[in-house]
Amino acid sequence: MSSYLNSHGLPFLPGYSFRDVTKSAFHRPQTLGYKNGYAMPRRPTVGIGNQPLLSEQLIQQEINDLNFQELDTTYSAFKKAVHEVFIPAHVALDKKILRYYAYFMEDIVYSAEEAHRVRPVVIYYYLEDDSMCIIEPVVENSGLPQGKHIKRQRLPKNEQGEHYMWKDLILGKELEVYGVKYRITDCDAFTKDFMESEGINVNEPEPMPEDPYIKCRRIPPHCYTTPSIFDSKHQFLTMDRKVLRFFALWDDSDSLDGEIRPVTIHYHLRDDIVEVREVHEPNSGRDPVPVLLRSKRIPKKIKPKPFPSCVLEVSEEEVDEYLSPKDFQLGHIMNLLGRHFLLCDCDGFTKEYYQKNHPEMEMKPIEMPRKENMAKEKKKNIPPYNGFGSVEDSLQNCLHLIPKHPKKNVLKMLENDHKVLRYSARLDSHNPEDEGRCFILSYFLSNDMISIFEKPTSNMASGKFLEKTRIPKPGSTVENPEFYSPADFAIGATVEVFSHRFVLTDADLYVLKYLESHSNNIPTQTLESLRQKIGVEMTDNQPADQHGEAAEPSS
Questions:
Q1: I want to staple 270 with a disulfide (CB 3.0 to 4.6 A). Which of 106, 239, 457, 494 is the partner?
Q2: pLDDT per position as a tens digit, 133-154
């Protein structure tokens, strides 16, 4: 109940209570809250509309009484309480790991050469959560499953539910985990400093016992046979992963569409095998085949045979000598299974190997030619002309897989379009039936083609004698044919057209005008013959005027 309702001393009845008109807040106070992420109830301190409660009046009166009390004045220095900053363990001990070196004995039951094996391990102890993991270092070519033995976890100490702590890891003592006893022999410097800072004396490290099988391997076995001079097993163990690398050029220009391509030659010292790989370039248009020549021993010298033989693969009994590192000399051309390779350079390891093992060989690199200089112009062998179609059309079958139309001189075609030189001709034949046959020989200046049309006579009907085509001169070769041109058409000249002989007897006036305009390319004999023939005809056919001069020919 609010305090102002009782301030007037009236009973709490209708008509005896008065409402404060200035009051605008009527909400109840919040009694629920969150603390450290949990919902917690709290006691209300005010009533509806933030009015003080009657239960809080005494507390308020006590506070008021304390405010009116006189305080004793002191002049001594005020000491503030110093609170230490709390840092949780997972933050303070983050990434702090104790490392111990240990080993365990593995019993061997089914072997007469060894009774047990000594397998070293590394124990990691994580201080932030008291977890541990045990890892065995991986030994190359050991044949044993190695690596992580126990993943990170809290390792049980006994059946009562206790776990191993860092205080239990002491040098010289055994640690039993899941039935396996690990004996701790040593630790790193950080672990030793941490243990001493916690007041624990670290024992002296113990030596790691030697594995009896490895010790037995060091003793050479008894040999009852004469050992060979060359030990392939020793070569494999000492030369494994040692490869001589040469940078060379493969000359494949003798094959169809071949070129000079860069390659890399690998010589594996462990078993004397040779591998050739191509150097691929982007947008080269070639398939990215990784290996040009797979890894194999390349024979250098084959034993001679007294009789011919055809063998696809040469066996080892037939090979007298294989390629060795002495056969790889920079600047020389090597023949690997019929392919020629020019050795240009090698890597640093290869140079060191030759300086140490073959100092008499000078590995001096040569400059690799540029790509534009590597491409050689090859002359393609074009088959002879077979007589079908024109020479240009038949040549396209040799240059392209899908034949294309031969290129034409478009400018010449536009300039000489509809320009034709016409000649009259007769057939030069020993056959009496061909007497009196007249022909019109047309030369088309746009494409240098010739067509022949026969005039009608009493014995022969008119018609097309020869379709438009280019006519080669007699005696010209098929590879480089020479065709007839206007310079060869003089009056009285003989034109041989596919074993038919035609004698030119006359020509148009346009022929003379055209040849005179191009007199630089026309022989004088041809022009004179045309002038004499056409000039006489013009004089005979045109009447004379009053002054005795011949009139000009009408256009």
A1: 239
A2: 999 999 888 888 999 999 999 9
